[in-house]
Amino acid sequence: MTEERKALISKIKIENDQTAIIEYSENTDMNASSVTFTGKEKVTEEFSKKFQETVNSFVEIIPALKNDVSKIKMNALRFVYGSGDKLEKVSYAVKYEPQKNVLTNIPVNSIPIYKEEFSEKTFSVSGKDEKLLYEILELAQKYLNGDTRTKHMKLTVT
């Protein structure tokens, strides 16, 4: 039995072939070296679906794109942790294709995770979206530990 890795994930990128690149470290020390894991197997369908769901969080930040949500593909998420390994900020990077053969990369950097002490006017990621981010981090952790789409396929012999 192999030992499971427990990592603080700082970046997740799902490639066009549905494999993932995940950057992680063992602790929150910004000076600590990070490791880049490049998966050879496809991510699970659940991981892929949840990752793409973050587009809904992204369009909350840029409401002008709400009507074009079907033309937006989540490219990468970057995470910043505070004390106690709690998410503090998230950055989004999306690919936006408003027309055929017109592709724009849009980064949105360091959006804070909502805290009770924030005023109503403070620009932040909602609690609902924070929950989704933690779900994605959990799925990425499982991927690091070998949970891939191949493992989820069921062979039916008739």
In short:
This protein has 158 residues and is α+β, with helices and mostly antiparallel strands. It contains 3 helices and 6 strands, in the order βββαβββαα.
Give the SSE layout.
Elements: E1 8-14, E2 20-25, E3 35-38, H1 45-61, E4 72-81, E5 87-99, E6 102-112, H2 127-144, H3 149-152
Antiparallel strand pairs: 1-2, 1-4, 2-3, 4-5, 5-6
**Tally of extended strands?**
6
| β-sheet strand percentage | 25-35%
Distance between the termini: 32 Å
Q: How many domains?
A: 1
Which word captures the global form? globular
As a percent range, the share of helical residues equals 10-25%
Low-confidence stretches: none
- Element string (H = helix, E = strand): EEEHEEEHH
Radius of gyration from the CA trace?
17 Å
Residue-averaged pLDDT, rounded?
A: 86
What kind of oligomer do you see?
single chain
With helices defined by DSSP (H or I, 4 residues minimum), what is the helix count? 3
Describe this structure in words.
- The protein has 158 residues and is of the alpha+beta class.
- It has one domain.
- It is built from 3 helices and 6 strands.
- It has a 6-stranded antiparallel beta sheet with strand order 3-2-1-4-5-6, covered by helices on one side.
- A hairpin with a 5-residue loop joins strand 1 and strand 2.
- Helix 1 packs antiparallel against helix 2.
- The longest helix has 18 residues.
- It is globular, with a radius of gyration of 17 Å.
- 18% of the residues are buried.
- The mean pLDDT is 86.
